[in-house]
Specification:
This protein is mainly alpha-helical. It contains 5 helices and no strands.
Length: about 150
């Protein structure tokens, strides 16, 4: 059980790197066509093409659960839950807290929340495909913690 918890925590942490990597090299790379509407609000819909990216990690998480259920991958439940937990955290921080797609957490004003908002604001300052910064979500560069 302890090893499963360790794998869960490790997976959650690795997902921050995966989010950074896929955001920088895939979303701002060859799949910019899906991510562009997140930077340039040229639509009236609540949904964005960018929302499709969660499907990849959801399928990966479900696949891990199925591999665990079929006794093919012993750590499938830990990895699947780690991916799911990161996805939920990402959704809460990015979609709800930062972009206010649901009007929750509006009054959060601690050091971390201010840093996350600053870093993401810098990311969205550039509306183009290249020259961006701050591609991660939960690990914020120290310079954004300063007042």
């Amino acid at each position: 059980m302890g090893l499963q918890i360790l794998v869960f925590l490790l997976t959650f942490c690795i997902m921050e790197f995966m989010a950074w990597f896929s955001h920088k090299y895939i979303m701002h790379g060859f799949l910019w066509v899906l991510h562009e509407d997140h930077h340039k609000k040229n639509h009236d819909s609540w949904f964005e093409r960018n929302d499709a990216f969660f499907i990849f990690y959801a399928v990966l998480s479900i696949g891990c659960f199925l591999l665990w259920q079929k006794a093919i991958f012993n750590f499938g439940i830990a990895v699947g839950l780690g991916i799911f937990a990161y996805g939920l955290a990402y959704f809460m921080v990015h979609d709800i807290f930062i972009h206010q797609r649901f009007k929750l957490f509006r009054n959060a004003n601690n050091r971390f929340s201010r840093a996350v908002r600053r870093a993401h604001k810098m990311h969205h300052k550039n509306i183009g495909k290249s020259q961006g910064e701050c591609f991660g979500m939960l690990v914020v560069p120290f310079k954004y913690y300063k007042k």
